[in-house]
Design brief:
Layout: H1 22-34, H2 39-49, H3 59-83, H4 91-112
Helix pairs in contact: 1-2, 3-4
């Protein structure tokens, strides 16, 4: 099914360019990722509403989620190879490394929840 056509007055046809320092650009990108928006939509919403959009995730949570996703992909690939009767020579090393990474990540997540108690 095709995307519905936008009304003429809703089309964004004017482009405004701004220059940012690398640090400013990094800040905008981190905020945009935290709000699950593109940098352009974040700036647009701040400009016209006067407020920053609500954060969906903290940057730390987003980074941890991405790392956990990578670990899951690696585990799925290893499991697939084992199910195909392919046992890589370094499988035990990889499995040990992934296990340690998962334990460290869980420890960070649990300790982060108690950050105000320290």
């Amino acid at each position: 099914m095709a995307r519905p056509k936008a009304k003429e007055e809703e089309k964004r046809i004017v482009q405004v360019n701004i220059r940012l320092t690398k640090i400013e650009h990094e800040k905008v990108c981190v905020l945009a990722r935290s709000c699950c928006l593109s940098p352009a939509n974040l700036i647009r919403q701040k400009m016209f509403s006067g407020k920053f959009p609500e954060l969906k995730q903290s940057p730390i949570e987003a980074d941890l989620y991405r790392e956990l996703h990578r670990i899951g992909v690696n585990l799925n690939q290893a499991t697939h190879r084992i199910n195909q009767q392919e046992m890589p020579g370094d499988y035990l090393t990889i499995l040990t490394h992934l296990s340690l990474t998962v334990k460290k990540t869980i420890k960070i997540l649990l300790d982060d929840g108690r950050s105000g108690e320290r």
